[in-house]
Design goal:
homodimer, mainly alpha, Tetracycline Repressor, domain 2, 70% helix, DNA-binding
DNA sequence: GCATGGGTAGAATAAACCCTCTACTTCGTC
DNA sequence: GACGAAGTAGAGGGTTTATTCTACCCATGC
């Protein structure tokens, strides 16, 4: 990614984040990117490519915001990770996850779906390995998705709940395997 | 809602669920609804109204799928609720929540946002009151959102995690208030 | 018998949109 | 100073789209 590409990708990302993936016209995207139409099409030969470019850029930014430069060079607990996710929502993504938004705007685009899956897999993986104690990757995925999606609805309450759940999962994984299936799990409806 | 309205709303709902909110043209929606263009516009005077109509219909269907006619006329535990949510995802919404999808497709439409908020508030409220033990509404929102959003990514694993987290939250609410803030909660980034 | 409300089929319109193309400018390098 | 790579500005083509409008059909009740 050279300078021009970064400028374009950044502009596209903010435009899509602010106005969704379907509303902004290419001319609006051009204004957001701050380049001419010709240059825009040079780096992203179609509107779909503009979406992909923006998402790749956002993926990098998200990872470095949530997992980059730890303050104390030591372990980054689940609690810290969730704090950072909430901070990301507060400052950048008050409307929800941009990857889900992109997939939802074009549900049949398998390329976008691939980007979403890779993004989420990498995030939950990183969260799991960064955590000191071992919480399952699947639990972390549910908690982080829950926080991200509930954020626009209940803001800080969502963060509090996500932290509580993560804390409980941590504590449970340290204990010797309690009975979990009191409830019947297969009931027909 | 008379018969014609139900027919139209149902057709619109399946069309939007299958192809997203932006891709289907009004002619495609007409085919899905199985009526003429004129009749379609009579019941939904603009494309946006078609979206709203579909969402209102889906809200009803979701509530009755997840909370309707309990098998044993007694209590519906959180476990049962989550099973039903997963069943809904399995059979109806493999792509995620249609309300979030609608908002994401038109982030500046405050009416849609209102529908989303009312839908989610009602769901988490109902889940909380239906549960035997008391889990906080906020925890339930995070868990249900997490399950719904993680479902397209990890299917049954997401259900297992959601159930485990809900179970832990239940157990914790029964115990006498353990210390929870071991971690520092405010760290600057 | 027939008026009427409510339906169908589909043409017409006006705007929006994606993408291409031409003509011109700027800037660093030999 | 000339040149080429890479940028800007913006008009235009061809297509798609939402919405409206005309013309017609059919059952039901008076």
């Amino acid at each position: 990614m050279n300078n021009m590409m970064i400028k374009i990708a950044g502009g596209l990302e903010t435009a899509f984040a602010a106005r969704g993936f379907t509303e902004p016209s290419v001319e609006e995207l051009r204004d957001a990117a701050g380049v001419s139409l010709r240059t825009l099409y040079k780096y992203a030969p179609s509107r779909d490519d503009m979406v992909r470019l923006a998402l790749e850029y956002r993926h990098q930014r998200y990872l470095s915001h949530v997992f980059g430069d730890p303050l104390d060079a030591g372990m980054q607990g689940v609690n810290d990770t969730l704090d950072r996710v909430a901070d990301w929502m507060r400052t950048e993504a008050s409307h929800g996850c941009l990857f889900h938004a992109a997939v939802v705007s074009a549900p049949n685009d398998s390329c976008l779906r691939g980007l979403l899956e890779r993004h989420k897999a990498e995030v939950s993986q990183l969260a799991a390995t960064k955590a000191g104690t071992d919480v399952s990757t699947s639990d972390l995925l549910v908690i982080i998705e829950g926080l991200t999606q509930a954020w626009p609805l209940s803001k800080e309450d969502a963060l509090t709940s996500a932290k509580r759940l993560a804390h409980l999962a941590e504590a449970a994984s340290a204990e010797p395997e309690p009975r979990q299936d009191r409830h019947q799990t297969n009931r027909s409806i």
